[in-house]
Amino acid sequence: MKKYKITVEGKTYEVEVEEVGVKNVQDELGNKKQESINTAQISQETAKPKAKPASSKASGAQKIVAPMPGTILSIKKKPGDVIKKGDVVMVLEAMKMENEILAPEDGTVVSIDVVEGSSVNTGDLLATFE
């Protein structure tokens, strides 16, 4: 089993993945080879992902995550500010370009999770709002 964090539409999930559909076998000479398994043999329960949303700081909160690696140049909003969809929350510099990080929907800023000058990676939490 391997564990991964996956972000889909701004929500982060922790998932465990088990490889199915391939098995290792040995022939009569002891040589190892891989053999495909008919996927119809795999039970429906095995195929279902065991995903659970990652916890957030506030109940019902939405997250704004970094779309790319870069450096936070400026922060335009602070906790308690009311934001409208499309408002600039902060500016992220990546590859010598300034990228505006926009509010994905209306809400109120709960937290700003970075400071100006911070280096961030893709998927890092930038802000939380509800």
UniProtKB/TrEMBL annotation:
Residues 28-62 are annotated as: Disordered. InterPro entries: Biotin_BS, Biotin_Carboxyl_Carrier/Decarb, Biotin_lipoyl, Single_hybrid_motif. SUPFAM superfamilies: Single hybrid motif (SSF51230). Pfam families: Biotin_lipoyl. Gene3D superfamilies: 2.40.50.100. It comes from the Bacteria. Residues 36-46 have a biased composition (Polar residues). CDD domains: biotinyl_domain. Residues 53-130 form the Lipoyl-binding domain. Transmembrane segments: none annotated. The keyword Nuclease does not apply. Keywords: Biotin. This is Biotin-requiring enzyme. It comes from Tepidanaerobacter syntrophicus.
